Amino acid sequence: MTEILFYHLVVKPLEKALPQFLERSLERGWNICLQTLTQEKCLALNEHLWTHAGESFLPHGMAQDGDAEFQPIYLTDGTENPNGAQIRFFVEGAQIAPVLAATPEPYERIVLMFDGNREAELLDARAQWKALKQTDATLSYFQQTEDGRWEKKA
Question: CATH topology for 3-146?
Fold first, then answer.
């Protein structure tokens, strides 16, 4: 069964927190699919992952780059999973339920990251939590502490 984790960003923005999650997932040997709500956010994260850490980068690509099946991290605003990802990240209010319905093989883990300082993302995360609670999914909720660490709340 797929484990679904909600991460409530409070202090560090997505652009600071996300690379750490992606690095840990790659260390586990997992392919990653990162889903945004809009193509604009997808393009912004594409640029950010090349430059986020000065001397290093996170290997990734998008559909227009070609060879999607070989990308360790695949960025999309759609429901596809061309790289056979074991973990899928949802940001910017991207919806989990359509992906679960469209995916014949479950992911090891699904992660929804949302900015608690943005009302729309907060309300969307609450709605997704409530809807997924009605299923047999295993849900966990983590909130960022003032020092940027993660505390499990549910």
Answer: Rossmann fold (3.40.50)
Domain ranges of the chain: 3-146
Q: Please give the Cα distance from 51 to 83 (Å, whole number).
A: 23
> What is the Cα–Cα distance from 129 to 125, expressed in whole angstroms?
6
User: What confidence score (pLDDT) does residue 90 get?
Assistant: 98
Q: From CA 32, how far away is CA 19, in angstroms rounded?
A: 12
For the cut 90, the answer to whether the pLDDT of residue 42 exceeds it is: yes
Q: Is 105 left (phi over 0), alpha (psi -120 to 50) or beta?
A: beta
Burial of 69 (0-12, 13-18, 19+ CB in 10 A): exposed
Q: Using an 8 Å Cβ cutoff, are 113 and 18 in contact?
A: yes
How would residue 9 be classed by pLDDT, with cut points 50, 70 and 90?
very high
pTM: 0.95
Whether 56 shows a pLDDT value over 80: the answer reads no
Residues ≥6 apart with Cβ < 8 Å to 91: 14, 18, 34, 35, 36, 37, 41, 45, 112, 113, 114
